[in-house]
Amino acid sequence: MDNSPIHQNNRFWDREHEWAEKGLEILFLPTYSPHLNMIEIFWGFLKYQWLDVDAYEDYSSLVNAVENILKNFGTEYTINFV
């Protein structure tokens, strides 16, 4: 998990015991390590490789393009980590 402020509040940490009982351990990424955060990698691909320039014409075009990518992620849109 990254060190976002949302992950550093009491509402988040109040559930730590509940999560631990379910076998979930919270591990934080080192500071300034977006290359280790999978969602950052995904958004990088989405913004810089998969979205066409015309997707930015208007809000509706952008929403449709992003929805298409999300629906087809894993088949038409993939990330190879090797």
Describe this structure in words.
With 82 residues, this protein is mostly helical. It has two domains: 1-32, no CATH class; 37-82, no CATH class. It is 45% helix and 0% strand. The protein is built from four helices and no strands. The protein has helices at residues 10-13, 16-21, 38-50, 59-72. The longest helix has 14 residues, at 59-72. The radius of gyration is 17 Å and the shape is elongated. The mean pLDDT is 88.
How would a crystallographer describe the biggest sheet?
none
The coarse silhouette is elongated
- Terminus-to-terminus distance: 22 Å
- Total DSSP E strands: 0
> How would you classify the quaternary structure?
single chain
- What count of domains describes the coordinates? 2
What's this, in brief?
The chain has 82 residues and is mainly α. The protein has helices at residues 10-13, 16-21, 38-50, 59-72.
Fold topology:
Layout: H1 10-13, H2 16-21, H3 38-50, H4 59-72
List the main descriptive attributes of the protein structure presented here:
82 residues; mainly alpha; 2 domains; 4 helices
